[in-house]
Amino acid sequence: MTTTSxxxxxxxxxxxxxxxxxxxxxxxxxxxxxVEPSRGHEGSLQYHLHEEEDGRxxxxxxxxxxxxxxxxxxxxxxxxxxxxxxxxxxxxxxAHSGTMRSPYPAPVA
Length: 109
Prior knowledge:
Protein name: Antibiotic biosynthesis monooxygenase
Keywords: Monooxygenase, Oxidoreductase
Number of strands: 4
GO molecular function, one term: monooxygenase activity
Domain ABM: 11-100
InterPro entries: ABM_dom, AI-2_Isomerase_LsrG, Dimeric_a/b-barrel
C-alpha cells in the first residue's frame, strides 16, 4: 500500500504586497530579482510575480512539499530579501498559504 505523506503534498503561497509611495520601482526590482533564484530552488513548481492595476504586486508560489518551502525560506537569498522588504512596503504583506487539494499535473516529457 502506498501512502502520501504531508511532505509530498504541494504547498502554495500567495499574497499581495503594496509598495510605499515612491517605492514601486524599488519593490518591483526586489521582487523580480527573487524570481529566477527561487525558481531554481529544489522543489519549486511555480513562481510567478504579477503587478495589479492598482499598483500592488501579487506573488504566487507552489512548492513540491513543505520541506522544500522550508529550505527555500532558509536560503541567504530569501533572508536578504526579507530584510530589505519592509522599507519598501506600505503596511503588511497580505499573505496566504495552503495545501493544494487539486492534483498537480505531471511534468510533460
